[in-house]
């Protein structure tokens, strides 16, 4: 997916305010009614409608008028919210090239102020671009598009929590830097996915290291569940780094043995096929029956001394609840391996678009889009929402008397490129209505015609406040 971060530079505070308002509205609405967005954003004089048009033009929002007139965030809009938050937190200052595309994620290089390059993973659950996964579709067919955002956020949170836990226990994983919405920032792995490596000087040593990792993870109570050549990075010194953790489960999971055996089998299969590794004969086998010669060194789940609890503790500490785990488990990890089924040689470049992360260095960032930190912008979600709440209350308490600027809003058509004439018309109408309301010519309550809102103004207000506090 194209991530044109250039647009980011031209988005104003109001743009982000409205984008955030849509995000908040999506907690309760599949499509957020325009009027609700306007009420949350609380821009003066119908400013929301002008901003909505701009956001639509840049494909940060999707317009839907099938049931009522409203909007939802696109992945791009969600990306921008996350990136903006990260920039405001000082995590990075620029977004560079895309270095990877997983089935349900996009990975970009990002750079810190001092030039350090990190990796940014944007989760995109539901994209399923490489293979249709029926059960996933069935699960979410009747659910709102917010579900995709919600699940992507859970995937990111879970991945971040696991990466941190593994790192703390000395596993070779990227350094988990930060997480916001569906975005995880981690250190850049200087290496290649194993799937791209045709030859290894010491395949047996690498094999043992990798199998050792599966066993050691299980000893720590964890199973990767997608452990294969796509999710194992290797550098020129044959150093291994594991990636991709949203589907991990505890060794106490009901299907733990199956997941463990599957991970092990993937590694055996790959090394046998790719590097012609033959596994030790079982010398103890007295008969000459067709016993699989691998069995001797194949780790058995039942024989591993497991210490469970790490997972639950780490997840709880990250704010990841049991329900989150249930939700995400229903969606990923149950029935498919996201990256495997990879025995075909032809698939080896799938999932990777850059030449090599090894070759990337700071010079590559000539084309990097630098993003400015907005000092006065709220640094994270909670404060953002507080800010929205504050201004909403401000607007509620203040008489809307500043009609002198209302006329300025008429220049909006000058933006040109009217890609959605009907929508533009309807937005303009709504804007006019809002301007009139601001001038006091119209009672604001009469504008509630395009969606049903049973509550009065006060119930509405408490709904928003509840939304914001439960965020
Ligand atoms: P998915 O969950 O969609 O499979 P992955 O986490 O496996 O996503 O990442 C997809 C690809 O992006 C990887 O195969 C790898 O090439 C690249 N990648 C992911 N994380 C990093 C990282 N930290 N450093 C360098 N490359 C990475
Ligand atoms: Mg992967």
From TrEMBL:
Residue span(s) of domain RIO kinase: 64-298
Catalysed conversion reaction: L-threonyl-[protein] + ATP = O-phospho-L-threonyl-[protein] + ADP + H(+); L-seryl-[protein] + ATP = O-phospho-L-seryl-[protein] + ADP + H(+)
Cofactor names: Mg(2+)
Keyword set includes Endoplasmic reticulum: no
Enzyme Commission no: 2.7.11.1
Record key words, sorted: ATP-binding, Kinase, Magnesium, Metal-binding, Nucleotide-binding, Serine/threonine-protein kinase, Transferase
Matches recorded under InterPro entries: Kinase-like_dom_sf, Rio2, RIO2_wHTH_N, RIO_dom, RIO_kinase, WH-like_DNA-bd_sf, WH_DNA-bd_sf
Any matching Pfam family: RIO1
Bias type Acidic residues, positions: 342-352
Comp. bias intervals (Basic and acidic residues): 332-341, 371-398
Family according to the record: Belongs to the protein kinase superfamily. RIO-type Ser/Thr kinase family.
Name of this protein: Serine/threonine-protein kinase RIO2
Source organism of the structure: Forsythia ovata
Lineage: Eukaryota, Viridiplantae, Streptophyta, Embryophyta, Tracheophyta
